[in-house]
Amino acid sequence: xxxxxxxxxxxxRHELLAWERSLDYHKQENAYLKMYLAELIDKYNEVDLVTxxxxxxxxxxxxxxxxxxxxxxxxxxxxxxxxHIGGEHLQDELILKLQVRLRNEMEKFVQENTAxxxxxxxxxxxxxxxx
Length: 131
Hints:
mainly alpha
């Protein structure tokens, strides 16, 4: 009998759901930062701020695209787990490998997005103090 390498698929499903919630939070936070940036541009019409706004807006658009890609990868992994649980034994090693890859990508995403938010807040604070 071929013993499954995936001992606790519900643990992986829980992890996937947690990542989905995390991405939803980051998507909302990103939308808030873009709106705040637009408000600042409307309020302060300074060259330094416009240049800074372009830089951060591009970063925020990239974050939106990355969130979409991660959501798609998570949905795919979730479908694979459902098939596995339903008795369609896919390659367990592939599922495990994808889970680890997603875990690493999510960790990297959260770290980089947090760093971007900190950079944004610090830069905006510095820019507005110059005026």
